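Researcher: For the record, we're logging two predictions in this thread. I'll number them. Prediction 1 follows.
Model: Prediction 1, sequence and structure:
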Amino acid sequence: MCNKTADTEPLQKEGNAESEVEPKDSRRLITQILLTAIVTIVTASAGMPIGYSAILLPQLKSMNGSLQVDDEMGSWIVSVHSAASPIGALLSGTLMDYFGRKMTLQLCCIPLIAGWIVIMSSHNHALILVGRILAGTAVGVVAAPCQVYIAEMSDPNLRGMFSSIPFASYSFGILLVYMLGTAANWRMVAGICMVLPAMSMILFCCLPESPAWLVKKGRIEKATRSYHWVNGGSTAKVKREIQQLVTRVENEGAQSKATQRSLWRTFLSSNVLKPFIIVNIFGLFQSLTGVYVIVFYAVEIISTMQNSGLNEFHAATLTAGVRFIAAIAASVLLVLTGRRAIALLSTIGTALSALCLSIFLQTDFSNSTYLILSLLIFYVAANTIGLMILPGVLVGELFPLKVRGIAGSLSFTIINLTMFSFAKIFPFMKSLIGIGNCFLFFGVTSIAGSIFLYATLPETKNQTLNDIEDYFMQENLLWITRNRRRRNGASKTQTSKV
């Protein structure tokens, strides 16, 4: 259970025996690890186009001929990926609800492979942009279903770790493409990048669909088999858990039918609107603190750190390696401590490192190679453990089942639109105010983000998805103003993972 401090107090009062999760046998743990491992293959393949622009742009700028790019075209090649991602994110909600979580993850591999084929064979800027759009659309589709699928298939006390592992694989995909870029040209890298999505399409055939989605579609027998595959247990226990799912879905359906709510009115209900605001403002701070800018423009940013003595390609690869290690560390932290502590550690650490970089890059310390590199590594590690990972984890945790697919897809749409806008204007921002003042901006927004998250972010560690949904039905807007006593007549906590 979480510590009983103001920052980490659980949503339900400690001591409720029914909220405790029974010890898991090795079979359950192994199947959930296997499931998560297969999901990480597709998320690693989604990380590769995110990092691809960092190795593509320097090669295109240094070459002669029709494919040579200037800053304007370079910014489009970088940002069009993020502009296309919202299209995929919007589609993912409909795809998740119609085809299921697993099938959606398989389908997204098709445009991703097609995008790499187009990029590999392109002979003009238009084809590169088309390939980036296809890949960006696929990456947008991946984000929500991978989080929802893992959240619905994992035990509550392991959900945070499993939900964060895809972000470690995103980081691995970025690292892998950086490493390939130091040894091969951009066409060969694009060809190699097709291997992972092709592999994941095949491996997903070995996994069952989410029991929550199957129950929602009335496929109770398949839901029972799926739940047993993931969790094991006696037939009576499996039937009991599935019945809890059925009851929850029926209650939500009856409530929606009774109130005749439109989708818009549903979103205005407190248990949807409040988490939607939290997730998307968190996503805004993710972009404004430079989390993905350093991914998209890693080589160029490092090359502008004048007199630092850094080899930009080696330093960019090093930052990708640090990001991967930090993402793995975040997965462990999500098991050991609460979401709030990780979020505040990340924003405060990002603020300190960004402000120090800003100062040192504009003073005589700018020629200190190891100092600048150390601060850059600390900056990347700090923003990875929380700012990069937590918004996606929260998408899988905070939204109620009835809108989990569409709310998740809309959230990733907004996050990607913000990412596109900032990626597009960053080269001009860098030219206008300089790289030192860019890090000053990152530091100030990180401080603002820490204040927002301290006030609003609920602690969800070890809580079932039903507990979290019940919390957002309370009247408080801010976590720091919540009622810390259990409400009279509160419904019993269920151990279902829905």
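Researcher: Logged. Prediction 2.
Model: Prediction 2, sequence and structure:
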Amino acid sequence: MSGEEAPTQQQQPEQEKKPDEPPPAASDAPQEPGSSPAAAEEKPLSCRALVLTGYGGYDKVRLQVKTQSQPQLKAGEVLVRVKACGLNFAELLGRQGLYDMLPAPPVTMGMEGSGVIEAVGEDVKDRKVGDRVITLSRSGMWQEVVVVSADHTFPMPEQMSFEEGAALPVNYITAYMMLFEMANVRPGKSILIHMAAGGVGIAATQLCQTVQDVTVFGTASASKHETIAQGGVTHPIDYRTKDYVEEIRKINPKGVDIVLDPLGGSDTQKGFSLLKPLGTLIVFGAANCVTGQKKNLLAMAKTWYNQLSLNTLKLMQANKAVCGFHLGYITDEELISRCMFKLLELYRQGKIKPRIDSCYHFEEVTDAMRRMHERQNIGKVILLPEPKKQEEKPKSNAEPGENVEKSEADVSEKKEEATEEVKAEKD
């Protein structure tokens, strides 16, 4: 981050008091039943993990160090040493208790990561120790070591960094399936991409470049326009100062063929009105519900009240399509695997490349979540399990103007709160 942003209180790892209890694991990880005689002879495994301890503000995600016996892999499983993890908007929702795919706290968060295979179970034929892989899970990826099914790992191209590997799965699978499986993007089409500087926005823009003559309208704050225009957005629109519906109508009076809507509420209605006949609206989020650190019931009610309501007769008469997309509810693993291999091939061809906004160590997870929550990021925010070195500063590709200055009062108040948290934990 730039020098303009005030320092925040970094988390000190909490030591787990129960050495025999396994760390919270990825969804496929085995639950170790205490320590066996064989395991007792082995060196215990120490694991840093980011655990959601309850619903609420940034402080609910805590860095914990847990100790367990070496995992006993089941057939078809691999042990991965995680080098980088992706932060997604779903985790911001999950922290507020608004993401129903996340198990109840305490739970280790994280849906995607990249790393190196350290051990393989029986019947694993096409993965070996030392392989660099990307891995997906419904939760549990924000930790140093995970046990996952080998089928949930994907070999990384040689030129791909661990940060890029962690940035690829959720955003690019989401964008790819919406564009090519649902909306059927073809040459000459036009598309509106909201939050065009975010992870899914940049992924969708890049994928649109793989199809000839696609016009992209992208909403983002003015400071991000140059970056998204260089990335392929034909017409950047500042949603903060202008009515994006009017701006699109000025350029395309008939509207657009496709709208990708991560916002919900009244923006879904606007998106539907912007569609040309035979156009497609895809709703894949409700970002308008999230207005602060904690759950905002008023914002949720407003979003719910303003949601698009249609009957089938009106839909027929409008000659438009409305779709919903939620990657968490796709259970067809072959579909996800096929999509991942296609994306990795596009990466090898140089047609897509994740844009890394910033990298934060686990100790700095509060800063990482705040950056995404305040929509300062351009591209993907990455979390690094490796402990932070004292002299190291968070890496960011953003320009200094993107950062929001924090007053000294805010910093002192946060330090007081952190001190209270420590006292409360001791009590």
